[in-house]
Amino acid sequence: MENFRLRVFRTVARLLNFRMAAESLFLTQPAVSQQVKALEAEAGCALFMRSAGRVQLTAAGKVLLPFAEQLAALAADAHRAVQQTAGVEAGSLVVGASQTIGQYLLPQLIAGFLAQYAKVRIEVRSGNTRATVQALIDGTVDVALIEGPAMRPEVHTEPFADDKLLLVTAAADAWADERILPEALREATLLLREHGSGSRRVAERALEAVGLPLRTLRLGMVFDSTEALMSAVEAGLGVAFVSQWAVRQRLSLRTLRPVHVEGLDLCRNFLIATHSGPEPTGAAGLFRAYLLAR
After folding, report:
1. Quick one: 74 and 110 in the same domain?
2. How many CA atoms lie within 13 A of 268 on its CB side?
3. Concatenated DSSP letters for 204-236?
4. How far apart (Å, rounded) are the C-alpha atoms in residues 271 and 63?
5. DSSP 237
6. Which H or E element spans position 191?
7. N or C terminus: which one in the chain shows less Cβ crowding within 10 Å?
């Protein structure tokens, strides 16, 4: 119900970074630039200044921002009011999910939820944990399912499922199915997910806890998807930490094998993220309650 150009404007205005805004909105960077240019043409003036790699609001942009925020709040109120007249079990729900959850858990979760609430219309938007949390804050998703801590005071999180990262290697590697000490990781090439990934954050913290910060290791390629990461390990490009949910099919096919690292705590929770404050209502409240009751 909110004007999309204003939503893009608000996101860029808060982040002051077109690339990060694109990630948050699940758009390409050129698409974000196009929306901003269209809004500037409509307003008849520039809303952002771009110079030396920096983005700043112009005087006109600073004037527009509070109105854009008020319109976003009004659109959210209108959406809730319309949903209430239709009945909570016939509302709509936009779920944001980090990649591992979105690809390997969410389809089954949604199927179970829709078995009880068949009239709820669900839309799913995926990204890494940082982008998914930002989408929740921006109001582009109603509830978020993430793999790492939100680290934002305006976001409340609750665990709904357990996970464990596994160190995996190619089936033919000498480390396959072996036990190693953490120090041995200095000898390997470690492949990683991108910054903002929940699984990367968990792996970093576990390694730091045993005296192995990433800067002391031999780092290889960085990937923006778990599937690409696992394919690179299969090709023998290095080892990687991957969710047990993501890797279980490849383990059963024996194209990847686990490496058991002694003393490394790689357990974590998958989290439901909602706005801090009152518990969510409507379809979002039903979905949260369904996940917590499983």
Report:
1. no
2. 26
3. HHHHHHTT--GGGSEEEEEESSHHHHHHHHHTT
4. 37
5. S
6. strand 189-193
7. C
pLDDT digits (tens, 9 = 90+) for 114-167: 998 888 999 999 988 989 999 999 888 999 999 888 888 889 999 999 999 999
Rg (CA), the chain: 21
> Kindly report the CA angle at 285 between 292 and 86, in degrees rounded to 5?
145
Alpha-carbon distances, residue 5 vs 18, 62, 142, 217 (angstroms): 14, 16, 19, 44
CA dihedral 280, 284, 287, 292 (to 10 degrees): -20
Tell me: do 268 and 196 sit in the same domain: yes
Model confidence at 97, pLDDT cuts 50, 70, 90, reads very high
Query: What is the count of structural domains for the chain?
Result: 2
Q: Which of 186, 167, 174, 149 is nearest to 271 (CA)?
A: 149
Check residue 76 and give its pLDDT. Answer: 72
Residue 250 predicted with pLDDT over 90: yes
Containing domain of residue 289, as a range? 89-294
For residues 265 and 239, which has the higher predicted lDDT (pLDDT)?
A: 239
Question: Which residue in 74, 43, 38 sits closest to 61, CA to CA?
Answer: 43
Contacts of 6 (CB under 8 A, 6+ apart): 39, 68, 71, 72
